[in-house]
Amino acid sequence: MPAAGGETDDHGHCRGRPSDRALPETAERLAWGMPTFRVGGAAGKAAKGGRIFAALADDDASMGVKCPREERAELIATEPEKFFVRPGHDDNYDWLRVRLAAIEDTAELRAILLDAWRQAAPRSVVDAHGGAGE
């Protein structure tokens, strides 16, 4: 199902959906009835575990991403049309929601996902892949 606005990337993937090829040692796995995106895991196979760095909401209109709690308030205050938390659900987790329709372009989406990936990935994976693209 396409993201808000029906936008897809050059590979036909939903605009808000990270490709398995986009970031190293990343895989998509269904959890809680929605796609989650993981890094690391058993022998570097994210499909067999791994740490969740992003999850696409069931309506494809938003995505949750790994984000330190101490950074959330500033992001939400700066761009409330783009960032939010779900009260009672995200309060105690390093998690932030992103409204995909508010994302300016694929470069901004990639930057958000890359930041979340770096926070979730084992340090050895980040180091082995040069921070995954910068």
- Extended strand count: 6
Distance between the termini: 30 Å
Please outline the major beta sheet: 6 strands, antiparallel
Helix/strand class: alpha+beta
**Lateral arrangement of strands in the main beta sheet:** 1-2-3-4-6-5
Task: Explain what the structure shows.
With 134 residues, the protein is of the alpha+beta class. It has 4 helices and 6 strands; from the N terminus they run E-E-E-E-H-E-E-H-H-H. A 6-stranded antiparallel beta sheet has the order 1-2-3-4-6-5.
Condensed summary:
The protein has 134 residues and is α+β, with helices and mostly antiparallel strands. Helices cover 26% and strands 22% of the residues. The chain has a six-stranded antiparallel β-sheet.
Keywords:
4 helices, disordered N terminus, 134 residues, 6 strands, alpha+beta
SSE topology:
Elements lengths: L25 E6 L2 E6 L11 E6 L5 E5 L2 H10 L4 E2 L10 E5 L6 H15 L2 H6 L1 H4 L1
